[in-house]
Specification:
The protein is mainly α. It folds into 4 domains: 194 residues; 75 residues, no CATH class; 107 residues, no CATH class; 82 residues, no CATH class. It is 60% helix and 2% strand. The protein has 18 helices and 2 strands. A two-stranded antiparallel ribbon has the order 1-2. The longest helix is centred in the first third of the chain and has 105 residues. The radius of gyration is 58 Å and the shape is elongated. It starts with 10 loop residues before the first helix and ends in a 45-residue tail after the last helix. The relative contact order is 0.03.
Length: 642
């Protein structure tokens, strides 16, 4: 029978329930096993003197089993779950089997005692060997007096005992299968519970996914609306700024025109004060476009009689002379303001450009004399995408204190893009990526000089001075010297040695090397010293004759072109004839490579044929002058130079 209002146990409740059921089952099985052992012992030895004690022991054990069984049944009913229902059904089957065993034992024992009593009446006094103990039927539970009186002696033979034992074995087998059935029922209930839990989890996961999808859709709509609003606000801001700028310019022009036409008016207003030198117009406080040198010029009323309708106002000579000057100064300021704003550039979030951008931005802000709030607005506007996000967060954390917010933003930018370690790594990377300079490309010395000047400028900053101090030693300077041609390296060696002797120092400072690079860049790129080393076309003039007459022709002898670097590795460190990788190739690969690059088969370093080769070649393997070491083929005989 299914329980009403069955509840689902929690994980902890299930564990506690399993422990309690296991404990009850263990005790019940132990008591039932004790009952079976006592019944079996009494059945095998019924004539023992302590049979009465054994029967009372069986009755007491069964009573204990009944009490424990009732407690277990009460606990299962109070639990009110599917698991307790299945356990209750299984226990009831086992309990009925045990009760049936005890009832059959009591019934068989009374029948046996009654049969023995009748035999005693018929045969007389029994001998000691045939005497059996008897148990009063009125003292055993579950057996009535009427049942004992109806027992007959003819049906109490050995065949009846066999039937009882057969029933006992059948009940045992039935109890065993009932226990197995109860175990299967429990496993089935557990599987059903797991399936229900899995279904619940799956449904919950689907619900969470649906909620997440709805949330993403809402966030997408909000982001699109925010983007549209930002675009609209930016467009409105641009239009408003443009109209405000045009309105200010129009008012200024009207003011200047009115001052030039009507002269000075004594009414207090933000205009020029007459009879004062270097007078300036009035600018409102906090105006972004006002220069630093322009201050508030508040005009004060003078004790001057106002002009009447019949009197003309005399023009003050000083005022008339200052009016063009004021217009010129105002025009210069407007032009300067436009130029300063046009110089502002956006930061691209690259650390190598941060110091340059910060210096330019700080100078422009100083020239404009902006307030902290205005500088904060311009800073956020001209930052890159990543840095702007950080600045917006820091600005939001200080909504009422622009000075602190501005300081926090600059501090974050310095940490993120201007830290000494990051600047040092960027400078090292620039130096490492700079190519080596050859004699044919002297303009590269300018670029190397500019890079050295950048290092010197950064090194002068106290923030980076300690970290970049190694540039004042040979370790730092040699990274630049390595990029120079060989003759300039020799010149620097002479210059550095002379400086060390004169000043008695370990090594010249970096500023000396920067000055040296500047001098060499000017010297190597001065057109006054660009000598033409090509021979004159008339020096190698030869006269050739033909059969018909004399013809004068100009023949220029071209020296064979020689490569300055290895074409296999694209490096100036060695030539192809000295390249070890090329020497290890097979002869077919060597010939194919030389033919592909148009090189000489004799010296391997010139773009000419072997017949025109004028290089002094001598193979170290065979002393031959027809090929170099790289073109030596195994098996060639050694040439005797004697």
């Amino acid at each position: 029978m299914a329980l009403r209002n069955a509840r689902t146990l929690t994980r902890r409740g299930q564990e506690l329930f399993d422990e309690t059921v296991s404990e009850y089952t263990k005790h019940l099985r132990s008591v039932a096993k004790s009952i079976e052992e006592q019944i079996l012992a009494y059945t095998e030895f019924p004539l023992q003197e302590d049979s009465e004690y054994m029967k009372r022991s069986i009755e007491q054990t069964f009573k204990d089993y009944t009490i424990l069984s009732e407690k277990f049944i009460l606990y299962l009913k109070e639990t009110r779950s599917k698991e307790s229902e299945s356990e209750l059904a299984a226990h009831m089957v086992v309990s009925r089997v045990v009760q049936k065993k005890v009832e059959m034992f009591i019934k068989h024992d009374y029948e046996q005692n009654y049969s023995n009593f009748e035999e005693d009446e018929n045969k007389g006094p029994l001998s000691v060997e045939t005497e059996q103990p008897c148990i009063a039927t009125d003292k055993l539970p579950g057996v009535k007096q009427e049942q004992a009186s109806n027992l007959t002696g003819g049906s109490r033979d050995s065949s009846h005992l066999g039937k009882v034992m057969a029933k006992y074995e059948a009940s045992k087998t039935k109890a065993k299968y009932a226990e197995m059935s109860a175990k299967l029922i429990k496993e089935k209930a557990q599987i059903e519970e797991e399936e229900a839990i899995a279904a619940t989890r799956s449904a919950r996961k689907k619900k969470e996914l649906d909620i997440s999808l709805n949330l993403i859709t809402i966030q997408q709509e909000a982001a699109e609306a925010e983007a549209e609003l930002d675009a609209l606000m930016e467009e409105m801001s641009i239009r408003s700024n443009q109209s405000l700028r045009e309105e200010k310019l129009r008012r200024t022009c009207n003011f200047l025109n009115s001052q030039g036409d009507t002269g000075f008016s004594p009414i207090p207003s933000p205009v020029m004060v007459p009879n004062r030198k270097n007078s300036m117009p009035h600018w409102e406080e906090g105006d972004l476009h006002a220069p630093a040198e322009i201050k508030m010029a508040a005009s004060t009323p003078r004790n001057v009689d106002p002009p009447t309708n019949h009197q003309s106002v005399p023009h003050n000579s000083d005022h008339n002379n200052n009016t063009p000057c004021v217009g010129t100064e105002l025009t210069k300021f407007l032009v300067k303001k436009e130029l300063l704003l046009s110089r502002l550039s956006a930061f691209n979030d690259k650390p190598e450009n941060y110091l340059m951008w910060k210096g330019s931005f700080s100078i422009i802000m100083k020239d404009l004399s902006v307030t902290p709030m205005e500088e904060l607005d311009l800073l956020v506007k001209y930052l890159g995408p990543e840095s702007r996000q950080q600045a917006m967060r820091l600005r939001a954390s200080h909504p009422t204190d622009p000075v602190k917010g501005l300081a926090r933003i600059w501090e974050r930018l310095d940490e993120r893009y201007g830290s000494p370690e990051l600047v040092e790594a960027i400078l090292k990377e620039k130096i490492a990526r700079f190519p080596r300079i050859t004699v044919k490309d002297p303009k590269k010395i300018y670029e190397l000089s500019d890079l050295a000047a950048e290092v010197e400028s950064v090194k002068e900053n106290p923030k980076y001075k300690t970290l970049l101090a190694y540039y004042d030693s040979s370790c730092g300077v040699n990274t630049f010297v390595y990029k120079l041609p060989g003759f300039l390296q020799s010149k620097w060696t002479d210059r550095a040695l002379k400086y060390k002797v004169e000043h008695e120092v370990l090594y010249p400072p970096f500023v000396v090397f920067t000055k040296f690079l500047k001098e060499m860049s000017i010297r190597m790129n001065d057109p006054s010293f660009a000598f033409d080393k090509s021979p004159s076309s008339y020096e190698n003039r030869e006269k050739t004759t033909t059969g018909r007459g004399h013809v004068i022709t100009n023949k220029t002898k071209l020296s064979p072109q020689k490569l300055s670097k290895c074409p296999l590795h694209e490096t100036d460190a060695h030539s192809l004839s000295n390249c070890r990788i090329f020497k290890n190739k097979t002869m077919e690969e060597k010939k194919s490579f030389i033919r592909q690059h148009g090189l000489c088969f004799r010296c391997c370093d010139g773009r000419h044929s072997a017949r025109e080769c004028q290089e002094h070649v001598l193979c170290k393997e065979c002393n031959s002058d027809r090929h170099c070491d790289a073109m030596h083929e195994q098996g060639q005989k050694r040439v005797n130079q004697n």
